[in-house]
Amino acid sequence: MSESSYNPYQNARAQFDRVADMIGLEPAVRELLRQPMKEYHFTIPIKMDDGSSRVFMGYRIQHNDARGPAKGGIRFHPQETVDTIRALSMWMTWKCAVVDIPLGGGKGGIICDPRQLSETEQERICRGYVRRLAKDMGPVIDVPAPDVMTNSKHMLWMLDEYEEIMGGRYPGFITGKPVGMGGSLGRTEATGYGVVYTLREALKGMGLSIKGTTASIQGSGNVAQYAARLYEELGGKVVSISCWDNDDQQAYSYCKLDGIDADQICSITDDYGTIDKEKACDMGCSAIADDGWLTQDVDILIPAAMENQINMGNVHKISPQVKIIAEGANGPTNTEADEILRKSGIFLIPDFLCNAGGVTCSYFEQVQSNMNFFWEKEEVLEKLDTKMTGAFKAVRDLAEGRQIYMRDAAYYISIQRVADAVKMRGWV
Ligand code: GLU
Fold it and tell me: Which residue's alpha carbon is at the smallest distance from atom 9 of ligand 1?
């Protein structure tokens, strides 16, 4: 369920303000950090396959680059809004800071529905986006990556256009490239695996392990798919996984109490994360409409789809059995619902910590691209695990030490790091 009045930017600012108050952040630092430093809004005119022309809106928002070049994905979405990208760019700043990588925060978006566009039309949109921004992005300015409904193919088209314009090879321009074309092994898995690394640590802190636990996942895109796979590999049982069904224009949760085979469900999911309903039912799943994923009697909920999915319309439907919410998506919980969660006793792994695996691996990709020497997958995943586990423990120790909510603790660490950087640079 979504609430039309929901504004992710207000949500991101409310989260920030709460901790800025707690820290006693200086007014000028607060003013600087509670809004993006630069925004680009532009048109992308495209020739369609049928010879007609269409104009798409594109955005790139750079929230802060005090700790390093802005970093963050580019989304394709028909309902994209400027305020959503503003919020997402802020969350990228906190995300890079919480895992302590030398990057800032940015995000981009194009209002379009790739499900309605051919490959060649998508390619022209990617190239048009880069033509508009080539001078304002780049390895030392702002580095894009995949996000909702974009993938390694889109990244390579964007890189190719950038290199054509700049007249050289700049593999550090973009991350999430295909393996063999400057991409890192493990990047595709990284966000979902990172979610499970933090989940494993959270369970360890409760004296539990993944083995024998049950989970319900919202979404079946890249993050959800790899989270489900690793969670299952470590002995967990996924009893429900949901998706947006574009044909029916509604969400379904596919449930199977004796466990859903992760590989099997991924094999019947399309490129945009839609599960084939008929085949899922053949697998023995029952299809429940709307918020079904959230009402399951499971130990773990993993919202891994879009923002504002846990809200006042459904937060009360969460089963008392749920011990942990691992936020794989960006901004899945709105401010009001978060107030309920913070009093509920459910352990929360906040989004910009939980889903930081993707950008952490993007950072590894940049390092490998710059060295022109690529690591084995095991090495990438080991380094990823170390980074995610270290960041998780730092946040949990602070939360325990100060008796504060996990989301506030993550903000506390990130805001301090970014505030120190802007002050050391002498900006304020
Ligand atoms: N889009 C991903 C995120 O929201 C990854 C960003 C990146 O790799 O730069 O974290």
Answer: 72
329: domain CATH number?
3.40.50.720
55 & 106 share domain: yes
71 lines ligand 1 (CB under 6 A): yes
Segment 265-314, tens digit of pLDDT:
999 999 999 999 999 999 999 999 878 999 999 999 999 999 999 999 99
Structural domain span for residue 50: 37-184
- What local confidence, expressed as pLDDT, does residue 111 receive? 98
Q: Tell me how far the alpha carbon of residue 168 lies from the centroid of ligand 1, in angstroms.
A: 25
Of 92, 141, 353, 354, the one to substitute when testing ligand 1's pocket (max ligand atoms within 8 A of C-beta) is 92
Write the secondary structure of the chain as one string of H (helix), E (strand) and C (coil): CCCCCCCHHHHHHHHHHHHHHHHCCCHHHHHHHCCCCEEEEEEEEEECCCCCEEEEEEEEEEEECCCCCEEEEEEECCCCCHHHHHHHHHHHHHHHHHCCCCCCEEEEEECCCHHHCCHHHHHHHHHHHHHHHHHHCECCCEEEEECCCCCHHHHHHHHHHHHHHHCCCCHHHCCCCCECCCECCCHHHHHHHHHHHHHHHHHHHCCCCCCCCEEEEECCCHHHHHHHHHHHHCCCEEEEEEEEECCCCEEEEEECCCCCCHHHHHHCECCCCCECHHHHHHCCCEEEEHHHHHHCCCCEEEECCCCCCECCCCHHHCCCCCCEEECCCCCCECHHHHHHHHHHCCEEECHHHHCCHHHHHHHHHHHHHHHCCCCCHHHHHHHHHHHHHHHHHHHHHHHHHHCCCHHHHHHHHHHHHHHHHHHHCCCC
**340 and 267, same structural domain?**
yes
Does residue 330 line the site of ligand 1, with CB under 6 A?
yes
Residues catalogued as catalytic:
107
Asked if residue 321 is part of any domain, the answer here is: yes
Give yes or no for residue 145 CB within 6 A of ligand 1: yes
